[in-house]
Design brief:
This protein is mostly helical. The chain is built from eight helices and five strands, in the order E-H-E-E-H-E-H-E-H-H-H-H-H. The strands form two sheets. It has a three-stranded antiparallel sheet with strand order 3-2-5. Strands 1-4 form a two-stranded antiparallel ribbon. The chain is elongated.
Amino acid sequence: MPAGSKTRPLSRYLKDYKHCQTHCSQCAKELDRMALVFRGQVINKEAIAKMDQPIDDNVWQSLTNELSALCRFCSEISFNSHSSYFDIIAFKQYLFDQTEMNHSTVREYVVRLRRLDEILVANNYPLERIKGDSIHQRIINDMPVAANDNYRIALRKYDQYLAWQKQSAPESQYSSVC
């Protein structure tokens, strides 16, 4: 490092970064509590505290490109959600980016679809049955619990996402497990 270059522990930079973030980097919701993501991994305050290697401002500037702040909902979906039947992460991002829904409505659709995914897993629903168009009607016909209005509405929204994805492919930035 050049003489006179000021260094601080990485943990100090990370704490400062965390405190100056105001909005989620995925959904743009104002942050009250947040998860800090570094190089694709959520880092908690214990991990931050252990990051005591000294770095200078130049190194810090290069590291900021690998950081993002997520609201609790986006971090939960991105890092603690393992869906077998639906691409929950891409669906969530589609709802935020391509619809005029407020955050609470998006959250409801995503939570409903996650619950339905868990029901399908528990019932060993054949994965090939959710391929193609109008998957919502097939699932409703096969799984009576899916006929519940909450699930039916979420499935219709998911069908809209799949239609949008097909229409906007290949330029779509969203992926799908279907």
